[in-house]
Specification:
Blueprint: E1 4-11, H1 15-31, H2 38-51, E2 71-77, E3 80-87, H3 93-103, E4 108-110, H4 111-120, H5 131-145, H6 153-156, E5 174-180, E6 183-190, E7 211-214, E8 217-223, H7 225-231, H8 233-238, H9 246-255, E9 262-268, E10 272-276, E11 280-286
Helix pairs in contact: 1-2, 2-3
Bound molecules: glycine.
């Protein structure tokens, strides 16, 4: 069985973005092979997606209701985990999550403590906002203040917080899973699922929800964090590995999410697969 690195760029892409982004991700997966462990390969894959402004992770992350950008990221291998929640003003949350795992006595750091730790580890202050971020935020505020009748109920719910605002179509979490010489790893990063309140944490930095790695494989998922956490999606997928074809498992687990944009990538000892109920870019390299 060949080694493989598999990436996704988030469920909820626009149709015309998927092909372009999938080519991009295939290139990123190849670049990541400059590294030599499954953990390093997944981290490097996610780092490249964080640095690309099209994805909702690192540079280009969406704004929250108060206009701030808070990001979540995690890395996992068998028996080890590191994550940051609500980190701000860093370029690569996934590298801080790696540092939490490898260079701190903890496995999760959140908020101000995560930012302070990042500075100690040499991550410089950085503004992940882009013009696209600004445009999306502006359009969302307009949407929230509009009297139009066709605004989704999920968005209207946020009007009570609407001193500030954000929502508009954007991609979701980015992630990578790798199988190399029988070992597995996963890495994941997100600006979150807009609209959301400052302080909200999604599925991405929660083991068993946004990602999971065990001796039988690795899983990384994308979608609305609240729904994913309620269903422990990554854990649910992982525990079916080896009992059914991997693609069937992904389809079955994701079918429970209805219309809510949800996707997953996974590798096992024998297979790798990706599936989403909305457009999702993916790229992979066997090696
Ligand atoms: N899946 C990203 C989030 O809900 O935060």
């Amino acid at each position: 069985m060949k080694n493989v690195i598999l990436l996704h760029g988030g469920a909820g892409s626009l149709y015309n973005e998927v092909e372009v982004h999938s080519r991009l991700l295939t290139g990123f997966s190849k670049n990541a092979l400059a590294f030599h462990t499954p953990l390093e390969i997944t981290i490097e894959s996610v780092r490249q997606m964080e640095d690309h402004p099209d994805f909702n992770a690192g540079t280009g992350s969406v704004r929250r209701l108060d206009g701030c950008i808070q990001m979540d990221a995690a890395v996992m291998e068998l028996g080890n985990f590191g994550a940051v929640m609500n980190i701000e003003k860093v370029r690569n949350p996934v590298l801080v999550a790696r540092d939490v795992m490898l260079h701190s006595p903890h496995v999760i750091l959140a908020g101000d403590g995560a930012i302070s730790f990042a500075r100690v580890m040499g991550h410089q202050e950085y503004d992940p906002g882009t013009q696209k971020t600004e445009d999306l935020w502006k359009r969302t505020k307009e949407m929230l203040n509009s009297s139009a009748q066709d605004i989704p109920a999920r968005i209207i719910e946020y009007r009570k917080y609407s001193r500030l605002f954000d929502q508009v179509r954007t991609t979701d979490t980015v992630g990578a899973v790798c199988r190399m010489d029988g070992k597995f790893a996963a890495a994941i990063s997100t600006g979150g699922a807009s609209p959301m309140i400052r302080g909200r944490v999604g599925d991405s930095p929660i083991p068993g929800s946004g990602l999971f790695v065990g001796k039988n494989g690795a899983v990384a998922v994308t979608g609305l964090g609240e729904e994913i956490i309620r269903r422990s999606l990554s854990s649910s997928i992982y525990h079916r590995i080896g009992k059914e074809p991997l693609l069937d498992v992904l389809k079955s687990e994701i079918s429970a999410f209805g219309e809510s944009a949800t996707g997953a990538i996974a590798v096992s000892g024998e297979e790798y697969a990706s599936f989403a109920n909305k457009f999702m870019s993916t790229g992979h390299t066997e090696f």
